[in-house]
Write a structure and sequence with these properties.
alpha+beta, Tetrahydropterin Synthase, Chain A, 4 domains, 5-stranded antiparallel β-sheet, 4-stranded antiparallel β-sheet
């Protein structure tokens, strides 16, 4: 029996070595990150199995030494035969003790360093790893499935033997065998997911395996520290220092259920583990898990497309014919992975930016200045890039040198584009990364347009026309590439000269030039406005003076002629009747003089009235004109005359 156990130990580490090497080769062949990390775990299991087998050999030698000692003691009862020291009498036991005292802690420490170093290296490597290749996925799935089957069968057999009394040294290798089987199953699953269009699953599972490797490293370190302070009881077998309890649960999952049952018994104070419901759950746990997985599998038959989305249905990785595009609503399909639905925001306006990306923290500022950085900083660069080339017709050559003027300048550009997907099949299948291609097309057309347009024109009156022209060009290139999108908007609001630096503040200098040009234009317009105001005013004043002079001349001549004619007529009238003319002239003068004067008429002559004269200014007659007094006031005679 012992020979058989040792053979199983040899087979364990040989299988782990072969499968670990094969898994590493297949993982490199298929470019799978999960397979590479899993191969490292299987390789660590190989080292553990080798040390476990070596310890198994030492214990077997010690057992044979004890049997030989017992046989010799029975054959020869003389005590002088074994008068030597115990170390000389039992060299195998001494070798086993020295191995457990020195070599096992040293191996465990090296194992911790190996696990920790593997976690650190894999974590950095996964950030730069390429997605798995699809060409070798079927072969990799078949090989990993074969590895998983071999490891699982041998692991379950070794795990069953390890439950026997005295076969604890098979547990570490059995745990890593079953762990390797689970890893190979996972790698086969990630290869299938990558084959059906989910390459990121491989990275997620690889990071999960790194986490498991990190947990085993922490467990190894804690076990190594606790071994220093562990109380030693003579005759009691210590737990293997390099054995992982976490990985051991895979080889003996029943131990976890037993531990949970004991915890429940202790917590509730009675044998919960002996109740029918606990026994039923223990026996039907696998069935319950399978039913839940089945329900989860069947739930993939139902798809709900949101109002702003369209779904793309694939049947075995190909478009599902006339029903490939799913409109918003509830739909049925074959379960995953037969049918897979990809969602796209086709009813939503999407956007991207060509050039610099605005800093969202500065969006709340009401004023954005050219002289202050307002774009996202890029790693290893300043706050703003130098910009894009733009034509400039206004460049002036320097007079102090023979250098010619360069007919180009730089602009810091941040152009937002808004688009909408109009043909989902073209967007999804004509190109691998349609969104990236659209951004590249837009960037190319912006560069081409800017090098052929004047800088002053695009920053002033030609901005709206330039935006429409860029939008039209990008739409034309998108139609040629059959992207199936409609370019809705292209904005040129945020284009300005580069910020520069402290020595050459480009934006500030450009702002001063623009300010001077605007001030010049303002002064010119102010002069035109002043001239437009003063010249018509002077002309109107001159016309008014001339008109008044002509009016005065006409009035004076007419009055003089009238006076002369009246005088002639007066002489004729006076000569006809001097007394009548004189009396009439006096009465006429008296009437005109007394007309504006207030008058009082006294009709009674035989009374001695007291007259009170009100010398206040009389109210204007025109204010009381048209006033109708009531009859009572007229009859009472109360009206003052």
């Amino acid at each position: 029996m012992e020979r058989s156990i040792q053979k199983i130990g040899v087979i364990n580490w040989i299988i782990l070595l072969v499968v670990g090497a094969g898994s590493a080769l297949v993982g490199r062949y298929a470019a799978t990150a999960t397979g590479t990390v899993g191969a490292a775990l299987v390789g660590i299991g190989f080292l553990v199995a080798v040390v476990s087998f070596f310890q198994m050999r030492l214990e077997e030698r010690e057992r044979l030494e004890k049997l030989e000692y017992e046989e010799l003691r029975k054959a020869r009862s003389s005590g002088t035969l074994f008068s030597e020291t115990e170390a000389d009498t039992f060299p195998a036991r001494r070798s086993r003790e020295q191995f457990e005292k020195y070599l096992l802690p040293l191996f465990t420490a090296l194992l911790f360093l190996l696990q920790g170093g593997a976690v650190w290296w894999f974590w950095k490597w996964l950030g730069k790893a390429a997605p798995p290749g699809l060409d070798h996925a079927p072969i990799a799935m078949a090989l990993y499935a074969l590895f998983a089957l071999i490891l699982f069968l041998l692991g379950k057999y070794s795990s069953g033997l390890s439950r026997l009394d005295g076969q604890r040294l098979l547990r570490p290798g059995a745990g890593y065998l079953i762990l390797g089987a689970c890893i190979c199953f996972l790698v086969a699953g990630t290869e299938a997911a990558a084959f059906f269009g989910f390459p990121k699953v491989d990275f997620f599972v690889a990071y999960g395996l790194c986490f498991v490797l990190g947990l085993t490293a922490v467990e190894t370190l804690i076990g190594l520290v606790l071994e220093i302070y562990r109380p030693r009881v003579k005759g009691q077998a210590a737990r293997l220092l390099y054995e992982s309890r976490l990985i051991g649960l895979l080889g003996q999952p029943g131990g976890l259920i037993t531990t949970a049952a004991q915890a429940l018994d202790y917590q509730f104070g009675f044998k919960v583990s002996e109740t029918w419901i606990f026994k039923f759950l223990k026996e039907a746990m696998l069935l319950i898990i399978l039913l839940q997985l089945g329900a989860l599998f069947l739930s993939t038959m139902f798809v709900i497309i949101e109002p702003n989305e369209q779904g793309l249905l694939e049947h075995f990785g190909r478009p599902a014919g006339a029903h490939a595009v799913l409109e918003p609503g509830f739909h049925f399909k074959w379960p995953w992975p037969i049918d897979i639905v990809y969602r796209y925001q086709t009813r939503q306006i999407q956007s991207f930016i060509v050039g610099e990306v605005p800093d969202p923290d500065l969006d709340k500022d009401r004023t954005v200045l050219w002289t202050r950085p307002h774009f996202k900083s890029k790693e290893g660069e300043g706050s703003e890039m130098p910009g894009m080339l733009v034509a400039s017709r206004g460049q002036i050559a320097r007079t102090d040198t023979n250098e010619k003027a360069v007919p180009a300048n730089l602009l810091t550009v941040s152009i937002p584009f808004q688009y909408q997907i109009t043909n989902l099949l073209a967007w999804a299948y004509n190109h691998a990364n349609s969104d990236e291609l659209l951004q590249e097309l837009a960037n190319r057309e912006v560069v081409r347009y800017l090098v052929n347009v004047d800088m002053e024109n695009i920053m002033s009156s030609g901005r709206l026309g330039a935006a429409e022209e860029i939008r039209r060009r990008v739409q034309a290139r998108a139609n040629e590439a059959k992207l199936g999108v409609n370019i809705i908007f292209a904005g040129l609001q945020d284009i300005h000269p580069p910020l520069g630096n402290k020595r050459t503040p480009v934006a500030a200098a450009f702002g001063q030039v623009v300010s001077a040009v605007q001030q010049k234009q303002t002064n010119h317009l102010y002069a035109l406005a002043y001239a437009s105001e003063k010249i018509p005013s002077a002309q109107a004043e001159a016309t008014n003076i001339l008109a008044q002079a002509r009016n005065a001349a006409v009035t004076k001549v007419a009055l003089a002629e009238a006076e002369a004619a009246r005088f002639t007529n007066q002489i004729t009238a006076y000569e006809a009747s001097p007394s009548v003319y004189t009396q009439r002239l006096r009465l006429d003068t008296l009437a005109r003089s007394l007309e504006p004067v207030r008058k009082y008429v006294l009709t009674a002559t035989n009374t001695q009235d007291i007259l009170i004269l009100n010398l206040e200014e009389k109210i204007r007659p025109d204010l009381l004109g048209g006033v109708i007094l009531p009859p009572e006031a007229t009859k009472s005679g109360t009206m003052n005359k």
